[in-house]
Amino acid sequence: MAAEELHHPDADRIELVDVLAALGHPVRLEIVRTLAGSATEVFCGAVAQGLPRSTVTHHLRTLREAGVICQRPEGRKLFLVLRREDMERRFPGLLSLAVGEFPGPQPAVGPAP
Fold first, then answer.
1. CA separation for the pair 46, 56 (Å, rounded)
2. Which part of the chain is the HTH arsR-type domain (predicted)?
3. Please, are residues 69 and 33 in contact by the beta-carbon 8 Å criterion?
4. Where are the beta strands (DSSP E) in the chain?
5. Do 80 and 70 touch, CB atoms closer than 8 A?
6. What per-residue confidence (pLDDT) applies to 1?
7. Which of 4, 12, 24, 74 has its C-alpha lying 20 to 30 A from 109's C-alpha?
8. Measured in whole angstroms, how far is the alpha carbon of residue 33 from the centre of its chain?
9. Could you read off the pLDDT tens digit of each residue along the chain, which spans 113 residues?
10. What order of strands is seen across the sheet that includes strand 42-43?
11. Within 10 A of 99 (CB to CB), how many other CB atoms are there?
12. Which residues lie closer than 8 Å to 68 by C-beta, 6 or more apart?
């Protein structure tokens, strides 16, 4: 797959509705959490293990076309990285909220008083 075949939207064209739709599926959200926990690029074979290749390809394409991730081909391998800076610039705090990275004290969870 050539790099020119992979469409990545410009940062200023990332739409909230597309991002929310992409993050709204549990498999894609888990992929994003995996990428958020990595300081470097992640080989695509390391995410969504146990799923059929076509299913993983679909989920990665959805995340890429929404602007959530960047896919970089290297030979026959594909590497993934979260577009954290672009997402933060467009929708501050959304990505952290989605992956459970909450700054500061957390609200107590439990029965209402």
1. 11
2. 8-106
3. no
4. 42-43, 69-74, 77-82
5. yes
6. 44
7. 24
8. 7
9. 444 578 899 999 999 999 999 999 999 999 999 999 998 999 998 898 899 999 999 999 999 999 999 999 999 999 999 999 999 999 999 999 998 865 555 555 556 55
10. 42-43, 77-82, 69-74
11. 19
12. 19, 22, 23, 28, 32, 82, 83, 87, 95
Which pLDDT belongs to residue 6? 86
- Does this model's pTM top 0.90? My answer is no
Q: What type of residue sits at position 52? A: P
Determine the Cα–Cα distance for residues 18 and 28; give it in Å rounded to an integer: 13
Strands 77-82 and 69-74: antiparallel
Tokens of 43: 């080989």
Residues 6+ apart with CB under 8 A from 6: 64, 71, 73
Between CA 108 and CA 113 the distance in angstroms is 11
